[in-house]
Amino acid sequence: MTLSSLWGRFVALHVSSTGDDEPLVMLHGWGMHGGIWGGAAEQLAQHFQVHCVDLPGYKRGLFPSPAGRGIKGEGLEAIVSVLAAQFTGPVNVCGWSLGGQVALHWAQRHPGQIKKLVIVASTPCFVRRMDWPCAIAGEVLQEFASALEQNYSLTLKRFIALQVRGSEHERELLQAMRKRLADGGEPDMLRGVLPQIAQPALVIAGERDTLTPPAASAYLAQALPNARMVAIGGAAHAPFLSHTSEFVEQVTGFICG
User: What's the whole-model pTM score?
Assistant: First the structure.
């Protein structure tokens, strides 16, 4: 029995659902939980049946190991398997940051379940490499990984600050993200499989995003066979929080169009 199949027996997702009509599954980013979507999810629920997922290891998502704060390798396969079993489709999927990678992997593994994709401030690879400059330095992520072992809470606060850096109204947004978090690693490279993901996709970037630069979103939009990109001016890594109305308008127009 593989590690993926073992995890598949124990991994469970917590899902908060609201609204009616067209299903929209929303996948959060690293270190967060489904409640981070906040007002954006509330507004989207006026048009869709919104399912905000707590991925394993986050908030109410169950996970077989305390180390479940990262997702990579066969762990990603297990999570996609559980998503595929819980949402048999067809559904629309919106993934932010790490959640965008999960969404892309889900669409590639189970294409019949996904109608449309919204990929928000994500990237096929978070780490800068010789052939991939559209990312942050590997030593920065390694520092976060090491710091997690010593002080998870403080490290997460630093990570939140990095996500909003450069955004309009940065201080207010930082406070909002910390409050949402209180209330409530990296997968394999995706570049090789992007041409296989044929679902219509909207790639949303934050113009001032330093964690997943707009160039990474541009790459996604070009590599996916049926995608287009929208850059939200003045936004950093969390455009659904800093520019909620514009974000909701873009998502609604794309899915309903």
Answer: 0.75
Range of the domain at 61: 3-256
Is 153 designated active site?
no
Q: Out of 81, 97, 167, 242, pick the active-site residue.
A: 97
Active-site pick, 28, 51, 237, 243: 237
Asked if residue 64 lies in contact with residue 11, where contact means CB atoms within 8 angstroms, the answer is: yes
- pLDDT, tens digit (0-9, with 9 covering 90-100), for 94-130: 999 989 999 999 999 999 999 999 999 998 776 666 7
Q: Which residue has the tokens 């819980």?
A: 86
As given in the structure block, the two tokens for residue 123 are 């990237």
**Pick from 176, 191, 195: nearest CA to 240:** 176
* Amino acid occupying residue 14: H
The CATH number for 119's domain is 3.40.50.1820
4 is catalytic: no
